[in-house]
Design goal:
about 15% strand; 7-stranded parallel sheet; 14 helices; single chain; alpha/beta
Length: about 325
Amino acid sequence: MNQADPNAMSQNILVLGAGELGLPVLRSLAHRAKGIDGVKISVLLRASAVESSAPGKQRDIAEIRYLGIEIVVGDLVKSSIDELAVVFAQYDTVLGCAGYAAGIDTPMKLARAALQARIPRYFPWQFGVDFDVIGRGSPQDIFDAQLDVRELLRSQHQTEWVIISTGMFMSYLFEPEFGVVDLQNHAVHALGSLDTAVTLTTPDDIGALTAEVMFAKPRIQNEIVYLAGDTVTYGEVADKLEVSLGRPFTRSEWSEEYLLGELARDPHNMMRKYRAAFAQGRGVAWHKSGTFNSQRALAVTDVASWINVNLISGRSK
């Protein structure tokens, strides 16, 4: 990739991980790359994932190979910065999709490896909320670690970076463990208040839009790109559930004070950290009209559509 040419695009791309987000990203990159000469896509996976006998893992590996994506075996957690830099240096673009399962220190390690490798372009794992607006000291300490990554990338001018802010994965809002939507008891527990808003995007949409961002002309560089499948208040979520499912939902509010108290009683509970952070309402929602997908008229899944596909159609099968 010729960084001096604003229309030069990523061509030799390494994606880190192939999980809930990584696989949709790989699918979309492979599809998008079909119309672009010279693009090669690789994915870095642990040996245990590649060699797994689990049917789901085997299906994923078979799909990756069918897509023509090269599999590179490596371990983001066990490898040192120097070791990762040697791998990254073989590519002009590295895109992080490993998520938080790799550990709180891994995003910074990957960023340092990307800079040490002097790669032209880096997309860090920052798919989520707007850490700048949230600021330091939020209930979710992972957010501070992500701010450290942003500061590092902004402090240098050698490697271009692109951050993609997506809000919460849409399905996560409906996870029973998260506690916001209780389908069994027909209840919505609002984080903060019923008027607190949250931006939601499906992993499939994030994958498709990430491919559009990566291959956009002129090239997007040193910029935060905002995506949104939908931006809704918790009260609106209850309204949409009632309309789609045809039954009433009770509404209650879990205040910031209440959620911080819950976190204080179990300070290492990841779910409680997220609930308290989202209850503050800062940096977790933005207007859909100003997003990359809206400005380019790219279709995305909204909450009502997600409910229809996953809670109605899926239930009837």
